[in-house]
């Protein structure tokens, strides 16, 4: 089979990232370009564009009126097609495969070629990932129209977690209702966790089946995952990406009764609902009007961190509260997973926008869990940008000392790799 150009599209809750690869069937994809728009929840959004490993656009502010992920994707596609120095995509017909990160994949246990039937199945899951699935499907539709010769493939965040054992994925509720309404823990950020598992295995020289790690994907949405023998054993998100850790606009886990004491009529459909997405006021409050935005007024954890560490900053107290709260919730999961993995943990891994860029957050978490043997290496943790895919930021000790690592996770690469291996998508 000949080489193809593949676009890998990752629509997160605050960003859209598109990577372009040369792919040959069964081979590792070779990246040609990467374009991303970030800061969709803290305007103005910014565009970054890298071609052949060189930065072409560093952080250009783009239109404030950008409506969301679909508009961001349109601009990214335009940027790629109009770039005269990117001869691999001269016209839309040059794109052979587009793979899409779909956060909630229900019971799908492998990537799917998007037919009208798969599309309908995915549409039915929109309400279970209200910040993600409908946006991603809008991008799928745009690609079907704009790139008519390409195959569209759906890759799922939930897939990696299909190995979570029954006693962990089951909610203690009526079993018949749970079964008929498919109410269970699904888990998300799985494309990232698959990338992390392989990269850390290679770094530590361990086969996946020998690898036990606690991984933290801390971005606009944040989650923790206990990985046992290279497979997901437990994760902090649940039926939807709301459970577990707080995020940019998400509360994370709270007492489920809280919402009824927060506002009246929370069970009613929000006026913001659309024909593709039905969202109650309660879900809207917990998904879109909570988290860092509600506590501090910003969704930018970089700003929160810097004010939390500047005692003279006028917002110091509230920013420190948000920072300390995040550290507390993260350590709660690390402690619980450490026990759940029976203390057999090779490494604690930080990834995602915050995990990769906040040495202060890493240091604070590792300090709080030092009783488990984790120890930060201040110099390695530093505040320099992480350069390699995997970097060690913990102190090395004997064989029993668990490591502390940072992984520059790459969901686009992970999806491209899966597509390159599946003949059906060619
Ligand atoms: N220097 C920084 N320090 C701490 N957090 C940062 C820094 N730069 C960016 N971030 C955080 O990273 C988040 C984006 O993470 P990312 O994983 O790219 O998001 P998404 O969930 O949209 O995929 C931003 O919302 C911001 O809070
Ligand atoms: C699942 C999820 O929350 O994804 P993101 O962090 O990209 O918004
Ligand atoms: Mg993300």
From TrEMBL:
Where Mg(2+) is bound, by residue? 10, 411
Q: Which residues are substrate-binding?
A: 101
Question: EC annotation?
Answer: 2.7.2.1
One Pfam family cited in the UniProt record for this chain: Acetate_kinase
InterPro entries listed in its UniProt record: Ac/propionate_kinase, Aliphatic_acid_kin_short-chain, Aliphatic_acid_kinase_CS, ATPase_NBD
Q: Which residues bind ATP?
A: 17, 217-221
* PROSITE patterns given in the database record: ACETATE_KINASE_1, ACETATE_KINASE_2
| Entry cofactors | Mg(2+)
Which positions does the site annotation Transition state stabilizer cover? 189, 250
Q: Which UniProt keywords apply?
A: ATP-binding, Kinase, Magnesium, Metal-binding, Nucleotide-binding, Transferase
Q: Which GO terms describe its biological process?
A: acetate metabolic process; acetyl-CoA biosynthetic process
Q: Which GO terms describe its molecular function?
A: acetate kinase activity; ATP binding; magnesium ion binding
Record's catalysed reaction(s) = acetate + ATP = acetyl phosphate + ADP
Pathway it works in: Metabolic intermediate biosynthesis; acetyl-CoA biosynthesis; acetyl-CoA from acetate: step 1/2
Give the positions the UniProt entry annotates as the active site: 157
- Protein family: Belongs to the acetokinase family.
**Name of the featured protein:** Probable acetate kinase
Query: What organism, scientifically named, is this protein from?
Result: Cercophora samala
């Amino acid at each position: 089979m000949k080489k193809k150009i593949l676009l890998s599209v990752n629509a997160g809750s605050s960003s859209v990232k598109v990577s372009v690869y040369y792919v040959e069937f069964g081979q590792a994809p070779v990246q040609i370009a990467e374009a991303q728009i970030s800061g969709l929840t803290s305007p103005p959004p910014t565009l970054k564009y890298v071609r052949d490993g060189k930065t072409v656009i560093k952080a250009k502010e783009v239109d404030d009126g950008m409506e969301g992920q679909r508009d961001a994707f349109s601009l990214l596609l335009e940027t790629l097609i109009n770039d005269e120095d990117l001869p691999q995509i001269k016209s839309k017909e040059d794109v052979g495969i587009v793979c899409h990160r779909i956060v909630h994949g229900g019971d799908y246990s492998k990537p799917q070629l998007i037919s009208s039937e798969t599309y309908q199945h995915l549409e039915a899951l929109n309400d279970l990932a209200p910040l993600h699935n409908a946006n991603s499907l809008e991008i799928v539709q745009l690609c079907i129209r704009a790139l008519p010769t390409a195959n569209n493939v759906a890759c799922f965040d939930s897939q990696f977690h299909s190995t979570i054992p029954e006693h962990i994925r089951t909610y203690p509720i009526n079993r018949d209702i749970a079964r008929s309404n498919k109410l269970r823990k699904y888990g998300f950020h799985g494309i990232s966790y698959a990338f992390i598992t392989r990269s850390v295995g290679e770094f530590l020289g361990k086969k996946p089946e020998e690898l036990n790690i606690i991984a933290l994907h801390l971005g606009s949405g944040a989650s923790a995952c206990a990985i046992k023998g290279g497979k997901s054993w437990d994760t902090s998100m649940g039926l939807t990406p709301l459970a577990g850790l707080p995020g940019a606009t998400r509360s994370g886990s709270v007492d489920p009764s809280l919402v009824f004491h927060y506002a009246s009529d929370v069970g009613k459909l929000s006026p913001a609902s659309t024909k593709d997405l039905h969202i109650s006021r309660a879900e809207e409050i917990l998904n879109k009007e909570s988290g860092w935005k509600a506590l501090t007024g910003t969704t930018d954890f970089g700003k929160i961190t810097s004010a939390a560490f500047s005692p003279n900053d006028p917002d110091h107290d509230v920013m420190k509260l948000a920072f300390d709260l995040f550290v507390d919730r993260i350590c709660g999961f690390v402690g619980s997973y450490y026990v759940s993995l029976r203390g057999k943990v090779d490494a604690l891994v930080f990834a995602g926008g915050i995990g990769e860029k906040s040495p202060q957050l890493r240091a604070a978490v590792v300090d709080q869990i030092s009783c488990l043997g984790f120890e930060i290496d201040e110099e390695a943790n530093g505040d320099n940008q992480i350069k390699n895919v995997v970097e060690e930021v913990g102190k090395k000790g004997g064989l029993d000392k668990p490591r502390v690592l940072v992984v520059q996770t790459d969901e686009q690469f992970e999806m491209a790799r899966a597509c390159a291996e599946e003949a059906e998508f060619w």
